[in-house]
Amino acid sequence: MSPFEIGLTSFGAMVVMVYLGFWVPFALMLSSFVGVWVIKGSPILAGKLLALAASETISSYFFGVVPLFIMMGFIVSVTGMGRDAFDVANHMFRRVRGGLGFGTVGANAIFAAITGISIASAAVFTRIAVPEMRRHGYSKRFSVGVVAGSSVLGMLIPPSLLLILYGLLTEQSVGDLFIAGVLPGLLLAFVFCLGIFLVALFKPKLIGEGITDPYDDADALTTQEVLAKGLPIAALIGLVLGGIYGGFFTPIEAGAIGCSGAIIIGLLRRALTLKDFWEVLTDTGLITAAISFLIIAAQMYSRMLALSGVPAGFGNFVATAEIGYWGVILAYVLLVILMGTILDSSSIMLILVPLMLPVLALLQVDLIWFGIITIIAVEIGLLTPPFGISVFVIKSSLDDPSITLGDIFYGAAPFAVLMLVVLGLVLAFPQLATALL
């Protein structure tokens, strides 16, 4: 067998293992090791090459951004800032019909700007927003759907864990990716709110029967309460993102400063105990270890593909197939969305992005814009059956057994459609991702 055929066989074996339920990093590592072994004819050489790929990946200075932003997100979560964001957002939209839906989207957007993890947003706001919406007459499908839909903002609005991962895979500036995610993230939040407003205006029964305004004037927050709840969040967002965009410090330094700021805020509010902090450190270690395995496996997989010549062969095939620039981009987007039905976001990126890089170089694609396209397409998979990881997180976080997985998928479907609309807009108008660069 030629190296090209070996590479294709390894790729196929990896896909089969994933479909059979193997842990994705294990499937990537095993197929990579066996592929390099067969290409080079030596298991020892294969082991050394892949060990070198692993050490180079984790020893990179830029990898330090991962545990820092994960830790900041967990600290924000345990100190109750998610509840504060929800309260402030609901206060702002208290007079709007469907205002709790607006408030949930707004709170998720605020929460996303200091956590960057969609699953964390889904878990936090399932416990906060769903009971509140149900109490005020919102339907169960709408209540869980708006939480599922708006939770994806956590992976687009910076600081985003997926943008960090994409930057590591493609060797692009994480700071530039963060800046590029701002406008598409805000646009997605706006489109979600517009969709809720139109449904509340023309099809109110889809939102719920007998909806009451979440607050009357007597229950509205006072100015002091708004400031007390909103200022710490605004300060942390301004510290982290303002520092990055203003050029005062790098994304890694921003992660460290953000962690310190979140700890100080938690201590001042007396909301961060020693037990909470230990749990934050433990969870940060577990998540970081899982991501480390994913990135190591991706680098091994990339090395195997490079040795086999599959990416170069794939690039030549695309160049001679005459499907054109947009044919390649649209085919890629469709493949990402389809893979989202069976795989998680990180795994899709780890499998497809290394394969696409030579093709993108050949087509001279802007990798920053392509990264935003990838994130939006990947995040649609969080809401689509049968995998839909955000849906399963919401189900596991619910205290209401009457709400089924089917209800959550049905409720999330309109938000997946709205994400497709935003994806189309960013495809048609690349300036939405690059205007601030």
From TrEMBL:
It is found in: Cell inner membrane. Residues 11-432 form the TRAP C4-dicarboxylate transport system permease DctM subunit domain. It comes from the Bacteria. The keyword Transport applies. Its main location: membrane. InterPro entries: DctM, TRAP_DctM. GO terms for molecular function: transmembrane transporter activity. It holds the Pfam family DctM. Keywords: Cell inner membrane, Cell membrane, Membrane, Transmembrane, Transmembrane helix, Transport. The chain crosses the membrane at residues 12-39, 60-82, 102-130, 142-166, 178-202, 230-248, 254-272, 284-303, 323-343, 355-378, 408-429. One of its GO terms (cellular component) is plasma membrane. It is a multi-pass membrane protein. Belongs to the TRAP transporter large permease family. The complex comprises the extracytoplasmic solute receptor protein and the two transmembrane proteins. NCBIfam families: dctM (TIGR00786). Part of the tripartite ATP-independent periplasmic (TRAP) transport system. PANTHER family: C4-DICARBOXYLATE TRAP TRANSPORTER LARGE PERMEASE PROTEIN DCTM (PTHR33362:SF5), SIALIC ACID TRAP TRANSPORTER PERMEASE PROTEIN SIAT-RELATED (PTHR33362). This is TRAP transporter large permease protein. It comes from Neptunicoccus cionae.
